[in-house]
Design brief:
Elements (H helix, E strand, L loop, with lengths): L1 E5 L3 E8 L11 E9 L1 H11 L4 E8 L3 H10 L4 E6 L5 E7 L7 E4 L7 H14 L5 E5 L8 H14 L2 E5 L2 H10 L3 E2 L3 H7 L6 H9 L4 E5 L5 E5 L2 E6 L11 H14 L4 H16 L9 H7 L4 E7 L2
Parallel strand pairs: 1-4, 1-8, 2-6, 4-5, 8-9, 9-10, 10-11
Antiparallel strand pairs: 2-3, 6-7, 11-12, 12-13, 13-14
Bound molecules: 6-O-phosphono-beta-D-tagatofuranose.
6-O-phosphono-beta-D-tagatofuranose binds next to strand 2, helix 1 and helix 8.
């Protein structure tokens, strides 16, 4: 089984305004769409589109539970989400306009998670996750979720012997790098913060990759570096017309893990991840992408080896 864990779930509210978004002016709404939010839930969506069985874990609020469940149902997401009473799942507001300037995201902080629900999630992991499973922990931490609590989740996964992927940032990223997991996907800035030496980026990737089986460094429009098995590759994405890049990283992770789970070779894994992520960028909402479109991009995706670990 593949489990995704979204500790800080969200509902994405995509607001498109007429014309160009302008400060100090009333920006008229053209369209509003609600979509799945939270990085792990987006990964679940990508896995589901690939026909890879998965279960989404995490916490949602009771106050807008019905709406959240409707969104999850509309995206065919299998879930076992723990409900926190008296609070709402946060909204992540994505603002788009009719220019090609890209989207803007404003994220609410989320609700505090009770110790009872934290323990329930730990118990679920202890009772269900096996060495054959894959767990993906993705997204920010809820307001009162300390690194100690976060690491209890990570340690429970590690104790199970599963393949553990983490798409997290800040202190949570530092902590998982320290303990060692199988997959991470920081951006260039996050790598620079993780290792504050004068070394160049590739040397830093080499160093981090010693402890991480699949290490992806996202470079935005410039693609990514992928380090695996002592080698580093630069991956150039296809040129696409950007509509909304929100969720593109989550689709990358979902497609990457889906292909790993299917036993694909690294080139195939990277091509699906990069192609699906590019397809996502062309879409208006924060979760849609097209696998057929991704496959059409394959001939444009370049994977060039740029370094070997020393
Ligand atoms: O990556 C996009 C996204 O998943 C949005 O859908 C939005 O809900 C947001 O990320 C949440 O990210 P955060 O880092 O706050 O957990």
């Amino acid at each position: 089984m593949i489990y995704t864990i979204t500790l800080n779930t969200a509902i994405d509210r995509l607001i498109t305004v007429q014309g160009a978004l302008t400060r100090k002016r009333s920006n008229r709404v053209k369209d509003i769409e609600l979509d799945l939010g939270g990085k792990g839930l987006h990964v679940s969506h990508a896995l589901t589109k690939f026909g890879v069985e998965n279960l989404a874990l995490g916490y949602i609020g009771s106050e807008n539970k019905k709406l959240m469940e409707e969104i999850l149902r509309s995206k065919n997401i299998n879930h076992h989400l723990l409900v926190e009473e008296g609070v709402s799942t946060r909204e992540a507001i994505v603002i788009l306009d009719e220019t090609d300037q890209g989207s803007m995201m404003i994220t609410e902080n989320g609700f505090p998670v009770s110790e009872e629900n934290h323990q329930k999630l730990l118990q679920f992991i202890h009772q269900n996750v096996t060495p054959q499973d894959i767990v993906i922990v993705a997204g920010s931490l809820p307001p009162n979720y300390t690194i100690k609590r976060f690491m209890e989740i990570i340690d429970a996964c590690k104790e199970s012997g599963c393949f553990l992927a983490c798409d997290v940032s800040g202190k949570a990223l530092s902590a998982v790098v320290k303990t060692g997991v199988h997959f991470i996907k920081p951006n260039q800035h996050e790598v620079e913060v993780l290792l504050k030496s004068d070394e160049d980026l590739l040397s830093k990737i080499h160093e981090l990759a010693r402890n991480i089986e699949y290490m992806v460094v996202s470079l935005g429009k410039d693609g990514s570096y992928v380090a695996h098995d002592g080698r580093i590759y630069h991956v150039t994405p296809p040129a696409v017309i950007e509509n909304n890049d929100t969720g593109a990283g989550d689709v990358f992770v979902g497609a990457f893990i889906a292909q790993l789970a299917k036993g694909a070779d690294l080139e195939t894994v990277v091509k699906y991840a990069t192609g699906c992520s590019a397809s996502k960028v062309t879409k208006q909402n924060s979760s849609d992408f097209d696998i057929g479109e991704a496959e059409e991009y394959f001939s444009e995706i370049q994977i060039i080896e740029v370094g070997e670990a020393v």
